[in-house]
């Protein structure tokens, strides 16, 4: 048993509620004991392995998920060294629904392979190479790929590229 808030606040790279809330453009509301409330995108809430923006005494009160994110088409790929093992790569893609006019923005959110969430946005459906390269360069710029018992950095990087290609292909099919 666990809580959504506890999973996010523990701030492990493979925190599934971090992946979910970040991919759905969640906004965290933070309460301080004697200060003003503040809001932080969940993508920016986790700053590293077991590190986040909470200051001493602050608590995560809620996570708001916007309706537009819940209406989006979503595709997900998860990779582990063993069938039910700790996630080594978790890639979630969303594509805005058709019919709203204009392009359908695509958002790719990478967790588990990197110490903190990495998010890349596109105006419309990107080409496969563009999507793979953009996520890769963002991951390298953010903090690089994790290299630990749950997976080596080169392997996680390769699996991330494959996950991005599969997610974009699935989003293209609708
Ligand atoms: C076998 C095993 C496997 C696990 N695998 C994973 C895994 O794959 N991925 C993963 O992410 N975790 C994993 N965990 C760790 C942990 O169980 C989970 O992260 C769980 O979701 C934590 O949630 P909780 O509600 O129990 O948090 P807690 O343990 O109650 O809290 C975690 C921390 O956050 C603080 N906290 C809790 N709620 C808030 C709040 N609202 N505001 C501010 N601070 C708060 C607590 O004070 C504590 O410091 C695993 C644990 C075990 C034992």
Strand content: 25-35%
What is the H level of CATH, i.e. the homologous superfamily of the largest domain?
Answer: CO dehydrogenase flavoprotein, C-terminal domain
Q: Give the SSE string.
A: HHEEHEEEHEEEEHH
Lateral arrangement of strands in the main beta sheet? 6-7-8-9
Number of helical stretches of at least 4 residues: 6
Shape: globular
The chain-level structural class is: alpha+beta
Unreliable spans: none
Kindly give the count of domains.
2
Q: What does it look like?
A:
By secondary structure, the protein is an alpha+beta fold. The chain has 2 domains: 4-66, 2-Layer Sandwich (Uridine Diphospho-n-acetylenolpyruvylglucosamine Reductase, domain 3), CATH 3.30.465; 68-173, Enolase-like, domain 1. The chain is built from 6 helices and 9 strands; from the N terminus they run ααββαβββαββββαα. It has helices spanning 4-10, 16-23, 42-45, 67-71, 128-142, 153-173; strands at 27-31, 38-41, 46-48, 51-52, 59-64, 73-79, 89-95, 106-111, 118-122. Helix 5 crosses helix 6 (153-173). The longest helix is centred in the C-terminal third of the chain and has 21 residues, at 153-173. Bound molecules: flavin-adenine dinucleotide. Flavin-adenine dinucleotide is lined by residues 2-3, 5-7, 9-10, 12, 14-15, 54, 59-60, 86.
Task: Tag the structure with descriptive keywords.
174 residues, Uridine Diphospho-n-acetylenolpyruvylglucosamine Reductase, domain 3, globular, 6 helices, four-stranded antiparallel β-sheet, alpha+beta, binds flavin-adenine dinucleotide, Enolase-like, domain 1
């Amino acid at each position: 048993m666990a809580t959504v808030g506890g999973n996010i606040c523990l701030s492990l790279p493979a925190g599934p509620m971090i992946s979910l809330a970040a991919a759905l453009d969640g906004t965290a509301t933070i309460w301080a004991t004697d200060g003003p409330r503040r809001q932080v995108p969940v993508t920016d809430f986790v700053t590293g392995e077991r590190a986040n923006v909470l200051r001493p005494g602050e608590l995560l009160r809620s996570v708001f998920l916007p309706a537009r994110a819940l209406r989006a088409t979503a595709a997900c790929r998860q990779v582990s060294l063993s069938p039910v093992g700790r996630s080594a790569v978790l890639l979630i893609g969303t594509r805005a629904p058709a019919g709203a006019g204009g392009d359908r923005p695509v958002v790719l959110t990478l967790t588990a392979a990197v110490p903190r969430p990495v998010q890349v946005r596109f105006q419309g459906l990107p080409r496969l190479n563009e999507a793979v390269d953009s996520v890769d360069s963002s991951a390298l710029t953010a903090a690089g790929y994790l290299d630990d018992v749950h997976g080596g950095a080169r392997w996680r990087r390769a699996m991330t590229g494959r996950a991005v290609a599969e997610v974009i292909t699935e989003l293209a099919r609708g």
